[in-house]
From TrEMBL:
Record has Transferase as a keyword: yes
Keyword Kinase recorded: yes
Highest rank taxon of the organism: Bacteria
Name of the protein: 4-diphosphocytidyl-2C-methyl-D-erythritol kinase
Sorted UniProt keywords: Kinase, Transferase
GO MF, any single term: kinase activity
C-alpha cells in the first residue's frame, strides 16, 4: 500500500448530520437515570476497610445487612447509612449509631 504524504489512509463515508432546533431541544431535555455517588475520602488505618466501606455505602434498593466486628469484640449487625470522615453512621434495627472506622476489625456480609 502506497502512503502519499498528506493523504488519509482510510476514507469513511457517513451520513451528514443536520441539526435542527427540535433535535437540539430534545437532546437537552433528556435526563440521565444514572446516579453518580462520589467516593468518600476516609482516613482509616486499613486500606481494605476503606474500600469495603466505600463499596458498601453506595445506595441500593434494599439496605445491605453487614456484620461489623469491633476491636473490643462487639458484633454489630447493621447497614451503612452515611460516611463522614472516619465516622460511619449505621442503621442497627431502625436505630442510628455512629462508630469510628478505625475501631472496626472486619466487615462481613450477614445473611
Amino acid at each position: 500500500m502506497c502512503n502519499v504524504e498528506g493523504q488519509p489512509l482510510l476514507y469513511i463515508t457517513s451520513p451528514s448530520f443536520i441539526a435542527n432546533i427540535e433535535t437540539i431541544e430534545t437532546i437537552q431535555q433528556e435526563e440521565s437515570t444514572s446516579i453518580f455517588v462520589p467516593t468518600q475520602v476516609l482516613e482509616t488505618k486499613n486500606a481494605l476497610l476503606e474500600k469495603q466501606l466505600n463499596f458498601f455505602s453506595k445506595p441500593m434498593r434494599e439496605p445491605r445487612m453487614l456484620l461489623f466486628i469491633m476491636n473490643d469484640g462487639e458484633r454489630i449487625y447493621a447497614s451503612i447509612q452515611k460516611l463522614q470522615g472516619v465516622d460511619v453512621l449505621l442503621n442497627c434495627f431502625h436505630k442510628e449509631r455512629w462508630i469510628n472506622a478505625n475501631n472496626i476489625v472486619t466487615i462481613q456480609h450477614a445473611l
